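Appendix B. Raw example, untouched.
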Amino acid sequence: MIDGIDLTTLAIPFYVLFMALELLSLRFFPDPGEQGYTVKDTATSLSMGIGSIVCNLAWGLVTVAAVAGTHALAPWRIGSSAASWIVIFAAYDFCYYWEHRANHRIRILWASHVVHHSSRHYNLSTALRQTWTGVGSTVFILPLAVAGFPAYMIFATGSLNLLYQFWIHTERIGKMWRPVELVMNTPSHHRVHHGSNQGYLDKNYGGVFIVFDRLFRSFEPEGEPVEFGLTKNIGTYNPLRVAVHEYAAIARDVRGAGSWRDKAGYVLRGPGWSPAARTAQARTGMARA
């Protein structure tokens, strides 16, 4: 965001242009191993993108206020120099890495983020399949305000980070030059992140850079063909159901839980957690002991 203008909103015509180019490339240079586009899936992705802009307006204002207020209380200030822009660009991606990792490891956050993973296709329209309940990101960018970066730098960097991630949602680009693959997030790395293959789950969280995944041992190179989507696909193109289905599942699990500990587990532990799984792990540990 610069001077109140969201860069990602300004980029909408370019999103449309590049999706059209991707469609043309699929039409004239087809690859039987690629999923391509379907009308229903693409319509759902675009609907989720439009809905995200509308539904997150109020939360965006809260985030702006929180970041600006935190910066006002910070004991120091960082000015807008070339060096500070470079630092915040890397620091923002570091914060994004931990936000993204938390989105996959804490179920109530996953309930929001799962929207982005709900398509069984992988193309540029998938990048626009965004949550309508993006309430989990604010806390992860507040350290940047505490460090002294002003709100406009933080939001501008966030927009640039998100813009970068648009182009990596494609099957059209294979593995890139090795030094690029070593440092940057690429279509190959991000395809792994969207895979439901067992070996690809919870891998490659980076936004712009892949170095944090390498550093914190969440990196996985692309090997076997990627199966896109969820481990349990939802089987709907209804945008409302796509937006809230995991919240509904959490509510059902919490209602059926037998203790407050289990209720909290369904909300705060990872997707797929259950008391039965906890018991099985405990028994395995006792057997090993």
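End of appendix B.
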